[in-house]
Amino acid sequence: MTHHSVCLTFDFDGVSSWIHSFDSPDSPTELSRGLFGVDVGAPRVLDLLDEYDVESTWFTPGHTIDSFPERAAEVWSRGHDIQHHGWSHTRPRQYESEAAERADIERGVESIVDLTGRRPTGYRSPSWDFSTHTLDILQDLGFEWDSSQMANDFTPYYVRDGWAAPADAPFERGVETDVVEVPVSWQRDDFPAFAFSRERGYADERAIFRQWREQFDWMVDNVDGGVFVLTMHPQVIGQSHRLARLESFVEHVADTPNVAFETVETVVDRFD
Ligand SMILES: [Zn+2]
């Protein structure tokens, strides 16, 4: 019997993404979308996870921890893992320097240590991208794993270093590091599917949940030891009827033999 994992992951951006990734720090309406996630979405999600006794992973910027310490503490005290998602939620390639990126990541570590008493072992990049310095910084700071890249769909692998992508010569893959990648996909992320942006329209929400279910079923049938990472944001998934659809997905997973809900860290601990 092959064992499969489902990692429900929540990028608990709060207002940080609206300040640093969408450049809208002076828009009270945009900021209020983040406040919805903190004040309304997160408690609803936590209640659903409690009901089904599901452990999950919350990638939480230090900015969220320091701005909303009571809610962040609630996530931790209700049994969920808290891992690194930057301090400021700056996209890595937008830092002015390596030193600025390193300082922000170190600050995020401090926020998590203050909250949980332990250092984070894993990192998820804001907006799922690395600068040319990110991997070095993560290794220097003792991170064991990442969940931001996409070179596989349902199977973890080792992140490579020393690759080269010249425009006029063949691609060089580089060499494996000991940093484990637990891959993500834009296809399994609620934000591009559901969050309103002036650059895209609305999706058929039922179709998105059906797609997640079909992807999960395919993994169970076709991948040994598959790891299904679903990325959600409390400010997006925590809206009204979406919780009911997420509950249906959770029930479907729970009814599938040889599948467990696990934190990303638990998956990484088993990987070698
Ligand atoms: Zn984020």
Automatic annotation (TrEMBL):
InterPro entries: Glyco_hydro/deAcase_b/a-brl (IPR011330), NODB_dom (IPR002509), PgdA-like (IPR037950)
One family name in Pfam for this protein: Polysacc_deac_1
UniProt-recorded Gene Ontology molecular function terms: hydrolase activity, acting on carbon-nitrogen (but not peptide) bonds
Domain of life assignment: Archaea
Any one Gene Ontology BP term: carbohydrate metabolic process
Annotated NodB homology domain residues: 16-262
PANTHER family assigned: POLYSACCHARIDE DEACETYLASE FAMILY PROTEIN (AFU_ORTHOLOGUE AFUA_6G05030)
Name this polypeptide is given: Polysaccharide deacetylase
Origin species: Halogranum rubrum
